[in-house]
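tool=predict chain=A
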Amino acid sequence: MALEALDSSTFGEYIKNNDALILFHKKLCPHCAVMATVLGKVQPQMAGVAFASVDSEEQAEVMAAAGVERVPTLVAVKGGEIRAHFTGIMKPAQLVDWFVNA
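tool=predict ok
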């Protein structure tokens, strides 16, 4: 699964225009790779939800703007705003419930 890569020039518009799950990660983080796999598993179940990623090492200003301090962190976006943060690893069913209730 390819996640749309966001940076400081695209992050704000993406938030305004999408209900989304955004994964904040870094390239050599094994837990980040696990969460990317989990996102790939839930994506078919979540029609209408966009999926994106932010590389924490390259986009420190986006991390600060989103209030993210550690990776992996998932950010739930609904109605043009960030509704929830989750740092760590979730199972697919947990992720879906978390997003629905965000």
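The two ends are 23 Å apart (CA to CA). The first strand starts at residue 4 and ends at 5.
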